[in-house]
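Q: My labmate handed me this sequence with no annotations at all. I'd like to see what the chain might look like in three dimensions before we decide whether it's worth expressing. Could you predict it?
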Amino acid sequence: MRILLFFCCILTPAVLFSQEKEKPWSLQQCIEFALKNNIQIKQNILNQRIAAITHLQNKAQFFPSLSGSISHSYNNGKKIDPFSNEFITGDWSLSQNFSLSASVTLFGGFQNLNSIKQSSYDLLAAQQDVLKMQNDVSLNIASAYLQILFAQELLEIARSQSEITKLQADRTRKLVDAGNLPKGNLFDMEAQMAMEEVNVVNAENSLSFSSLNLMQMINLDTAANFTIAKPDIAPPVEVLLNNTSGHIYDLALIRQPEIKSAEFKLKSSEKSIVIARAGMFPRLSLSASYGTGYSSLSKYPTNVPSYLGYAPNGDLTSAGDTVLSPQFSDLVYGNSPFNDQIDQNLNRSVGFYLTLPIFNNLQTYSAISRAKISRENAQLTLQLQKDNLRKTIQQAFNDAASSLKKFQASRKAVAAMEESFKYTDQKYNVGAITATDYSDAKNKLTKAKSDMLQAKYDYVFKLKVLDFYQGKPITL
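A: Here is what I predict for the chain of 476 residues:
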């Protein structure tokens, strides 16, 4: 009993995990998983973060820059005392300097202000690029999801037709054995049965490929036990849309991120021109510094000279007498202490600096010209995005209308084919037609059902595209 409980404890998590893996994925789950794991979306998010950092850096340009420096050096030979400014010749000497400096631009042609505005537009454009990539991924996921549903229904049709053919083949075999039908009918029916078994295999392969395609699109690591939820998709309604493609385009024009991104990039390019023109204005800046230093060459007297009396200095008066002069003891010098030099060598400075651009080898002119060309390119890009959006909506609208018409025609064809096949099946059972005629009628019915399914899912997807451009969420 204990052994049984032990194995139950071990196997229960595995069973639960297996059941969890087999849980069907809904369309919303596939989209959410893809949005979290898609590499291109992650790259766009990184670009957005870079744009945010650039925007922050441009804001920081309004603050003063502050820097400090420390130097420690040894010198030998003839040199200049950094504090007495005298030439000195001697052995190795040590010098140290400490300083803080700050500077701020007071006026630079409003370059910093416009750089902030430009980087804010770049950040907004990067955010819209992320949304654009997310929208593209969502639409692709919806298309792949519907393709699986289409493949599932095709597989059901193929299996159903194969089962019908197997039953008919068994019936034909009995009729042949009874002598009511020629043996050739059985051969034809067996050939039809083999062909439909191939159709089942092809449908299974198509479903497997569609499932693999969706798993790769959502970046799912494993392919084991992946299934999707099968929503109840109603047949297409008779009325296509209450809106025209032009009205849908007008709604999409103010909602779609690719349009907003192009608009922000155009505004950013306009700021590039203003930033380039700032090179034509004078630049005024304020700088300040505070520093001190130490030198091993710095000396100071360590004693006070004492009076030694009068002594001849070697000179004679006009009368020939010896000249006497007062005599003092020599000064004794020592190295100035580090702390004393730090206090004594303090230096401070404050200055305004005005730079007037006169001629810089046409660099400003070239920068302005390039910025203007970039703005024209941004205008063309915006127009191109609008044109592509209009064409996409028009194409989706026309495709939806065509798919609806095709579905309506295919539905009528399927209804007619089903009635015709019932009559054909009855005639075949009484030997009024050959197996070839029976197979031909059955193949036509299968093709009509396949065409109707294709039109149905194509119409559903195009409607989802049009709903998406109207700002509606992608759901099934």
